[in-house]
Amino acid sequence: MFRKVKPHLQNEFDLIARHFHRPTPQTRLGPGDDCALLSPAPGMELAATSDLLVSGVHFLPDADPGNLGWKALAVNLSDLAAMGAKARWALLALSLPAADENWLAAFSAGFHACARQFGVDLAGGDTTRGPLVLCVTALGEVPVGQALRRDGAQAGDDLWLSGHPGLAALGLRHLQGEIVLPEPLCRLCLQRLHAPVPRLSLGEMLRPLAHAAIDISDGLMADAGHLAEHSGRTAEIFLHRLPRLPQGVERAVALEALLCGGDDYELAFTASARQRSTLAQIAAQLDIPLWRIGRMCADATPPAAQLIDSEGKIVPMEKQGYDHFHALPSLA
After folding, report:
1. Count of structural domains within the chain
2. Same domain, residue pair 47 and 101
3. DSSP conformational letter for 5
4. Is residue 90 part of a domain?
């Protein structure tokens, strides 16, 4: 694991040892051999996810490497949170234009800070020379048969949303010069963009309560649509129940960011109305806002997410969220 940078770079093994080898107390065999050896706890099954972050597509080429290290791991841990899994291990593969000591030091510091906060072992990976691309595989554990999935939403379920989605999208638009955010809103939005916090504790607490869940990475309407599609339902999202929009930015801009912006890594989930009081207690315990934004309706053809106004009418929307293969502007 963590093979050498190819082609040969001076002190490549020293760089890997210095920046990426850390104690791995949850791992039978960590970096240094051909594979890591992992032992799930009895009664657990593995949840595994992998994400690519590509320079110019997922992050600005001059992005702060410390923030990038944190985010590279955090976005994967968010997928584990959506499944109700406990995060345990990560694998990291890097394609680097050069073995820049300062960049690697900052990147690894951010990565390891996220790993420490959420109890994750970096169990191995690989490095090579090439365009700047980061690939993280995260693995977690969930009790057998208890994983939260996208296909479990039931007719009549409440649809819930955590946190304040839309802030990261506003931060990105500010960086791209499309809007100007006032302080302290600007600082908050950039923090949400650069250092998302995966809702792992929330995901684990939702296991006995929620019927289905998804993390919000491509936009609320798009990801609620995925949940609806997998469950064969219609997700009705009520405009008047959405989280409060931030002050200091045009309402239409803030609403579009909330509904269609990505990079939030909050959770959307469905649960029976009987769970409302329990979910209110969880929100208070974790100090995370939980918004009851809609409901899941009977089987639909085709299943979809719909925005509903105060008069009960469907609000037409041209844009749903981020799609890698549509003609959308990149970050370059």
Report:
1. 2
2. yes
3. P
4. yes
Q: How many residues does the chain have?
A: 332
Question: Residue 95: inside a domain, yes or no?
Answer: yes
Residue 191: closest CA among 34, 8, 30, 64: 64
CATH of the domain at 209: 3.90.650.10
The CA-atom distances, in angstroms, between 2 and each of 10, 16, 80, 153 are: 16, 7, 23, 40
Question: Considering only CA atoms, which of 329, 321, 249 is closest in space to residue 60?
Answer: 329
In angstroms, rounded to a whole number, what is the distance separating the alpha carbons of residues 162 and 298? 24
228-237: average pLDDT: 94
Q: Is the pLDDT of residue 21 over 80?
A: no
Residue 56's CATH number: 3.30.1330.10
Question: Which domain, by its residues, includes 291?
Answer: 158-308
Q: How confident is the model at residue 319 (pLDDT cuts 50, 70, 90)?
A: low
**Residues 220 and 246 grouped into a single domain:** yes
> How far is 50 from 125, CA to CA, in rounded Å?
12
* CB neighbours of residue 85 within 10 Å: 29
Residues 262 and 164 in one domain: yes
Written as one string, the DSSP assignment of 34-101 is SS-B--PPTTEEEEEEEEEEEBTTTB-TT--HHHHHHHHHHHHHHHHHHTTPEEEEEEEEEEESS--H
Residues 107 and 191 grouped into a single domain: no
Strand 86-96 relative to strand 121-129: parallel, antiparallel, unpaired?
parallel
Kindly state whether residues 88 and 178 are assigned to the same domain: no
* Enclosing H/E stretch for 141: strand 133-143
**How do 210-216 and 266-271 pair as beta strands?**
antiparallel
Q: Quick check: 328 pLDDT over 50?
A: no
Residue type, 287: D
Percent of the chain with pLDDT over 90: 71
Q: Report whether pLDDT(114) > 60.
A: yes
SS3 call for 293: strand
- Please indicate, yes or no, whether residues 207 and 242 belong to a single structural domain of this protein: yes
